[in-house]
Amino acid sequence: MTRNELLDLYFMDARAKLIDIAAFLDRLDRGTGEADFRLAAFLRAMNELSCNEPQRARNVLLSLSDPTEEPIAKAPGKGAVGAWAVVNS
Asked: Cβ distance 84 to 66 under 8 Å?
């Protein structure tokens, strides 16, 4: 497909998602208290968007993913939180 064909198909959806992200960040800015590791992970993942390489989706996913390979005996919580807490970042 050409870039214009891709823009015709996907631009409005991407535009809406971008506005959703901006609104999310605005709500966080208005919130009180300290943010946990998820905000730092989110902001690191957003930095991947500015890279000019065709693997942005892969890099965003990896930046939010648990890099460990060894299974743990017991999960620390009841469910996934969507980001990995980077130690000493």
From this structure: yes
